[in-house]
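Board notes, transcribed. Complex of a protein with calcium ion.
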Amino acid sequence: MLLSDLVTYKNDCISIDSTLNDAIDRMGQEGISHVIVVENDSAIGILTLKNIIEFYRNGTDGDIKAIDVASYPVLSIHNDRPVEMAIELMIDYDVRRLVLIDEKENYISTLLQSDILTYYENKVHTAQEVFQCLNRRNRAVSVHHDASILEAINLLQSENRDVLIVLENNTPVGIVTEQDVLELAYREISSSEPIARYMHFPIITVEMNEKVHDAIDMMRERGVHHLMVKGRENDMYLLSEKDLVLNYNTALEVKLESKLRDTKATYNLLGLAFCEIIDLGEQQIIKWLNAEAMMTFQVKIDDCVSKMFPDKIWQTLLLTLRTQGGVDKEKIEINDRVYEVTLIEAEVNNQPIMKLFLNDISELVRLGEELRKTMEYTIELEQEKSRLYLDVASVMFLALNKEGKVDLINPKGCQLLGITQEDAIGKDWFETFTSNEDREMTKTLFADVVSGKRDVVEYYENKVYTKEGNTRVIAWHNALLKDRNGEIIGTFSSGEDITKIRESEREIERVTHYDVLTNLPNRLLLGARLEHSMQRAKREKTKVAVLYVDIDNFKDINESYGYNVGDLVIKRIASGMRTLIRQEDTISRVGGDEFVIILEEIEEISQCERTLNQIMHLFKEPIDTSFGDLKLTASIGITIYPDDAEDGETLLKNADIALRRAKESGQNSYYFYTQEMSVQLFERVLMERELHRAVEEKEFIVYYQPQIDLKSGKVIGAEALVRWQHPSIGIVRPDMFILLAESNRLIIPIGEQVLAQACAAVKRLIEQGLFKGRISVNVSGKQFERPDVVETIHRIITESTLAPEFVELEITESVLMSDPKELGEKLIALKALGIEVAIDDFGTGYSSLSYLKSFSIDKLKIDQSFVRGIPSDEQDSAIVKAIIAMAHALGLTTIAEGIEDEIQASALKECGCQQGQGYIYARPLSEEKFEEFLKYNDISKS
Ligand code: C2E
Ligand code: CA
Ligand code: CA
């Protein structure tokens, strides 16, 4: 399709001496937005609405010449050119009209974008939708409907638009185009009048998803050049014919305008002249050219190639192209300059074109001349220079011949390898210097490259040996060496020693993933390993055991012997445990004295039991330190994937729960995780929260269990037993919460509350004359541990105003195991205050009776487990007898607890036990009931 085929001829030219008013008249008559000023049949200027508006803005003057307002020169194109060329010209020069000329360059007519549009419309049916044609430039510029014509003109100019939307209350009510403004000028309407009076309405609006060809139909039908498109967020766009043309270009696979510009911009940056040429048989014309070509050869699109340089040269080039398929960097002289010319055939949009590249190498040639003149000197100098460069280079240079033997190595390379050049030249590089692990790989690679089997590998890293046998990591950049004929003769490489970099990378990897003390994987890496183990187990249908190992009482080691010893212990244990597990298993240090072991490929639980026993055994081995041998124990919690959980986090939590259970059950043991543990833990957490609250709210009350003199049957005291009066559960017995309270040390405030309450109650009962014995209060080991225990107890008793002589403390045997010096001092201090001390649950612990002698203790309380068995159980009877006899010998009083029947009571009496306590006399009683008991029970009165 040629341009001449699609233009609609119009009477749009005026002579050179026409006035501006003539031009405006003509536009009005013909309904066109431009006129061409013609002189001697050739177009010399174009007058568009834009020109006129600009002029009109400054006030019209009817006598002015049209040519004075016109723009020139006009952009012209021969009318026998393909349509695509016209599009490129319009895009490149950003114009909407071209002047069509004949072979004599005479004016024929004007080509409008809408003409091209018509062409495409007839040719192309497309499914394209309107929104695909929109871009930011289409965003509508609006003017308020109160604005004057002048304001509208100003806006058209400043925003460089040819159409405006008129808005009233933010609603588009009309459209104003340059054409309208022109008409106003034509009608000599004052520019201060409101624009709204002359706008077009209603506005033609299409939806975003309207088909493009429908939109075109609509435009033609209504005779408009713009459509309004409502965007998604109520933003408005105006779509012009040009946008649709561009869009059709896309449909025709001509690149989008921007894309086109991009590639052309690249050509403009090339620094060499570039032309796209189309062949019209007789002549070849420039379809497109870059800025360099334009400047150097003073040509434009649509010019003949022969305008660029003498026809003779061009014909020779064409001949070479046709006979040899192309011109490759041929040197040609044009106008005293030397060009390297490349001419190839290509295809753009199914259209055959030629691409012409002209590289101005005049300077190079001149240099070459000079170079030749001083050749010998230069070569010498160049060699000297390259040698110098090789000598001072801070990287290694290495040239190998085809056999892989060293041809050249620079001083840096020698220094790096600790060799002299003589050591290396002629040696087989791979056999002599490449590390064993990399040798085969690099050798094969090299052989393939020099034999031309594969391209040179521009970059790789490998290890080389120094003379001393150390390895260094080298990063190589490689190039092929070819001789004059292009034959490969070897390789040339630069090598950089990156050993340090790789080492520090490894170091970073180590510190982020490994524990510094033991070098074991840390928690982070453990997570990854565990994930990996689980995936593998899933694949292979095996199990994974996760062991949480914790050293018992490790805190004591740190506190007693210092952190150095602590660290040593951890290191020993870590390395010991590492020997117990297989290569594929993981051991990780996750906390101060905590380790996690992952055992893979477990098929039966017994497999991990073996490892567990080995670990327990390992701990039995004494560790020698500067403080002597240390013997340790460990507690372990185990959980199994996928039985217990299927994700790493839960598995670790489970193992931890099982570990806690092991700890609670007295350490030095291992426990497999069970579901109940989680439930218990959950309950325990709840309970703990409740307990905290109970301490705050003082929900603890005290029950009193009378203590009886076995001979006389009189009440000689009472034991204070705590009860938790829970607001919703009611009375809670101590076995439910004492253990927990001891583990979280809440027993300390609880114990203090009990002591205070008991003292107050007894004080009252004494004052009422109902009671005259001692109140026996249980004191937990946790309380007794505290250095200020005596002061605290003394303070509480004093505050209750009860005399300390009425108080007795029950401590368990475990308290006796603490530091004997400290304990002794505390007991003496209590004694000094008049407070007595009884050993509770006696016989269940390990304390030897003789040990008791060293402390000031007053009473032994025989544990109810022995009382239960007497007199029928011989062993129990024997123990009870022995305890009583021993106590006598030491001058201690004995009291038996848990007496439930008369037989037990009389048996104890017979053995010489002085006092008793138990259900047979009374259960633990509330304060009120205890008072009643004291009032109405005979024995209390005597
Ligand atoms: P315990 O000190 O050995 O207290 C004696 C326990 O035996 C009491 O249980 C009491 O009710 C029960 N008992 C008394 N006579 C008989 C009997 O004839 N037969 C049987 N089967 N049991 C009898 P309770 O009150 O449940 O206290 C349980 C444990 O809670 C106490 O054992 C003590 O270790 C601890 N406890 C109670 N109150 C306190 C307190 O205020 N502070 C501390 N630290 N521990 C307390
Ligand atoms: Ca007790
Ligand atoms: Ca007891």
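The pocket of calcium ion (ligand 2) is lined by residues 719, 778, 810, 840 (CB under 6 Å). The CA atoms of residues 276 and 355 lie 5 Å apart.
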